[in-house]
């Protein structure tokens, strides 16, 4: 029963997303979009997120997007200043970082967020250990690197994904 609810919820969300995105009200589009959304929902029913979202998770998700945007802007400015300086002040290296996140989805979003932030790139992830290429290694210690790179994202992702 739970999978049926997920499929129905996913179908509705996909259909609504399409209509918000395209701003069309054609009945034929509604029918075709609904059928395609249902097919996609059935095919990916084992990977769907639970439709029951706690308001706290939604709030933390919004804050996470804002925090990610701010971090991307700060990192872009930092990298831009490094590029325009006559002597490029970089100290590249790969650091090891431990994450507290237990869910696979939380870890996936964390690694992608790190990679989206200029100056850092997730090279590998093994269990709870991330290997990150950092343009300016400020702290080679695992705890220091974790604090500087991951902690700002982790506190939100931990609430959202566990």
Q: Which terms would index this structure?
A:
three-stranded antiparallel β-sheet; mainly alpha; 2 domains; 162 residues
Percent helix, as a range, is: 55-70%
Question: How many β-strands, per DSSP?
Answer: 3
Q: How large, in whole angstroms, is the Cα Rg?
A: 20 Å
Spatial shape: elongated
Task: Report how far the terminal alpha carbons are from each other.
Answer: 24 Å
Number of domains as seen in the coordinates:
2
Structural class: mainly alpha
Encode the helix/strand succession as letters: HHHEHEEH
If strands are numbered along the chain, what order do they take across the biggest sheet?
1-3-2
Biggest sheet, in brief?
Answer: 3 strands, antiparallel
Portion in beta strands: 5-15%
Can you give the mean pLDDT? 83
Number of discrete helical segments: 5
The stretches of 5 or more residues where confidence is low (pLDDT under 50) are none
Write a structural description:
- With 162 residues, the protein is mostly helical.
- The chain has two domains: 2-47, no CATH class; 55-161, no CATH class.
- 62% of the residues lie in helices and 12% in strands.
- The chain is built from five helices and three strands.
- It has helices at residues 2-22, 27-43, 55-84, 104-116, 142-161, and strands at residues 93-98, 120-126, 129-134.
- It has a three-stranded antiparallel beta sheet with strand order 1-3-2.
- Helix 1 crosses helix 2 (27-43).
- The longest helix has 30 residues, at 55-84.
- The radius of gyration is 20 Å and the shape is elongated.
- The mean pLDDT is 83.
């Amino acid at each position: 029963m739970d999978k049926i609810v997920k499929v129905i919820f996913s179908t509705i969300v996909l259909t609504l997303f399409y209509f918000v995105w395209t701003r069309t009200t054609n009945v034929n589009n509604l029918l075709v979009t609904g059928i395609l959304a249902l097919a996609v929902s059935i095919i990916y029913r084992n990977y769907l997120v639970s439709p029951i979202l706690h308001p706290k998770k939604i709030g933390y998700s919004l804050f996470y997007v804002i925090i990610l945007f701010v971090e991307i802007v700060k990192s872009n400015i930092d990298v831009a200043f490094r590029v325009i300086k006559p002597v490029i002040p970089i100290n590249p290296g790969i650091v090891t970082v431990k994450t507290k996140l237990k869910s696979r989805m939380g870890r996936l979003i964390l690694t992608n967020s790190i990679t989206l932030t200029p100056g850092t790139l997730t090279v590998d992830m093994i269990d709870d250990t991330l290997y990150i290429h950092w343009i300016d290694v400020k702290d080679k210690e695992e705890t220091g690197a974790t604090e500087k790179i991951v902690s700002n994202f982790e506190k939100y992702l931990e609430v959202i994904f566990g």
